[in-house]
Write a structure and sequence with these properties.
binds uridine-diphosphate-2(N-acetylglucosaminyl) butyric acid; 338 residues; Uridine Diphospho-n-acetylenolpyruvylglucosamine Reductase, domain 2; 4-stranded mixed beta sheet; Uridine Diphospho-n-acetylenolpyruvylglucosamine Reductase, domain 3; alpha+beta; single chain; 5-stranded antiparallel beta sheet
Length: 338
C-alpha cells in the first residue's frame, strides 16, 4: 500500500475531468483500509472514498486523501431451493457482477446491466434502471464504521432505500465505507420487461422465449443507443434526478404542455422525467466548447475532452434555472459535487 502525492484523478472519474489529489492510495483489503485510517499522519485530513468515480463531479483539486476502494471477490454465500445469495467486494465493477450472475443464470440483476460504477457505490444511491432498483435484490451489506473501525451489517430495512436515496446519503453520510454487498437472486427468473423499450427491443432482437441473457442484452442495447460510453465521452450518467412534484402542479403543467410524460408515485405525487423537461427547455444537444448536453439523452451532461468541472457545474446551473423558469420545477443533481 503506497500513498502517492499529487496524483491526477482523470483516470478515476468517468467525466474524465482533470483534478489532482494531494494524497492518493488504493486499498485491497479491509485491513489496509483500517491501517490507513489509523495512520496518525492522515487522521486529521479530509478523505474521499472512491469507487468507480461514476457519480462525481470534480470541480477543483482535492486537498485531502483519496482512498480508492479495490476490495475484490465474488462468492456464493449459500443457496436454497429458490434463491442464491451472492456476496461481492465493494470494489468489484458493477457490470462485471451482473455479467457473472447472467452467465450463471442467477436472476434479478439483468435490468441493471451496463450501469457504470462499483458494487460498493451501488447501495449509496440505490441504483436503478428499467423498473428495477438494487433494493429489489438486496440482502445486506457490510460497512466499516469510520469512528469505531468496526465492521457493521446493514439489512434492507436499515438502509432506508428510496429513489436514488439511502441512509448513506443522509444521517450516515461520511460515517461508513461500504466493504461488501450481498444480493439475493432468484433461481426462477421473474422478468420485468414492461418498462420503456425493453419489449420492443426484444422483438427487434428476434427473441422468441425470454431468458436472463436476452433481457440483459436488450438493456445493454438500449443503454448503448441512448447513453454515451464514458470510455469515449466523459459523463456521469443522469446528472439530475427525475423530480417528484405535487399532482396539482402536474395537472396544471399538463394543461399547458399536453405531451408531458409522467409516472404516478402515489395519490398526490407524480414523477416527471427530467430529460423531457431539459429537452423542452431547448438544451438537448447543446454544446459550448468542450462540454455540453448529450444529443440523445438530455439528462446527461458531457465532457468532450478538456472541459472542466467548473464549466459543467455552471452549465448545470443554467439548465436548472431554465427548467425552473419554464416549468416551475427545481431539478436536483444526482451527481455529487466535490
Ligand atoms: N426523455 C425526453 N428527452 C430526453 C430524455 C428523455 O423526452 O432527452 C423522455 C423519454 O422520452 C421518456 C422519459 O423521458 O419518456 C424517460 O426517459 P428514459 O427512459 O431515457 O429514462 P430517464 O428517466 O431519463 C432514468 C434513470 C436512468 C435509467 C433510465 C432507465 C434517473 C435519474 N435516471 O432515466 O438512470 O437508466 O431511467 O431506467 O432516474 C442514471 O441514474 O445515471 C441513469 C442512467
Amino acid at each position: 500500500m503506497t500513498i502517492q502525492q499529487n496524483i491526477s484523478l482523470k483516470p478515476y472519474n468517468t467525466f474524465r475531468l482533470e483534478a489532482t489529489a494531494r494524497f492518493f492510495v488504493e486499498i485491497n483489503s479491509v485491513e489496509e483500509l483500517k491501517s490507513i485510517l489509523q495512520n496518525p499522519d492522515y487522521q486529521s485530513i479530509d478523505k474521499l472514498f472512491l469507487g468507480g468515480g461514476s457519480n462525481i463531479l470534480l470541480t477543483k483539486n482535492y486537498e485531502g486523501l483519496v482512498v480508492k476502494i479495490n476490495l475484490k471477490g465474488i462468492h456464493k454465500v449459500f443457496e436454497d431451493n429458490s434463491h442464491i445469495h451472492i456476496q461481492a467486494g465493494a470494489g468489484e465493477v458493477w457490470h462485471e457482477l451482473v455479467m457473472y450472475c447472467v452467465e450463471n443464470q442467477y436472476a434479478g440483476m439483468e435490468n441493471l446491466s451496463l450501469i457504470p460504477g462499483t458494487v460498493g457505490a451501488a447501495p449509496m444511491q440505490n441504483i436503478g434502471a428499467y423498473g428495477v432498483e438494487i433494493k429489489d435484490i438486496f440482502e445486506e451489506l457490510q460497512a466499516l464504521n469510520l469512528e469505531t473501525l468496526e465492521i457493521e451489517t446493514f439489512k434492507l430495512s436499515d438502509c432506508h432505500f428510496g429513489y436514488r436515496e439511502s441512509v448513506f446519503k443522509h444521517q450516515f453520510k461520511g460515517k461508513y465505507v461500504i466493504t461488501s454487498v450481498t444480493f439475493k437472486l432468484n433461481k426462477v427468473p421473474v422478468y420485468k420487461v414492461a418498462y420503456g423499450d425493453i419489449q420492443k427491443t426484444l422483438e427487434e432482437m428476434g427473441v422468441k422465449s425470454l431468458s436472463i441473457k436476452a433481457v440483459s442484452d436488450a438493456v445493454i442495447s438500449i443503454r448503448k443507443s441512448k447513453l454515451p460510453d464514458p470510455a469515449e465521452i466523459g459523463n456521469s450518467g443522469s446528472f439530475f434526478k427525475n423530480p417528484e412534484i405535487p399532482k396539482v402542479q402536474y395537472e396544471d403543467l399538463k394543461a399547458r404542455f399536453e405531451n408531458i410524460p409522467s409516472y404516478p408515485i402515489n395519490e398526490t405525487t407524480v414523477k416527471v422525467p427530467a430529460g423531457w423537461l431539459i429537452e423542452q427547455a431547448g438544451w438537448k444537444g447543446f454544446r459550448d466548447g468542450q462540454i455540453g448536453v448529450h444529443a440523445r439523452q438530455a439528462l446527461v451532461l458531457v465532457n468532450y475532452g478538456g472541459g472542466t468541472g467548473e464549466q459543467i457545474k455552471a452549465l448545470s446551473a443554467k439548465v436548472q434555472a431554465s427548467v425552473l423558469e419554464k416549468f416551475g420545477i427545481s431539478l436536483s443533481a444526482e451527481v455529487n459535487f466535490i
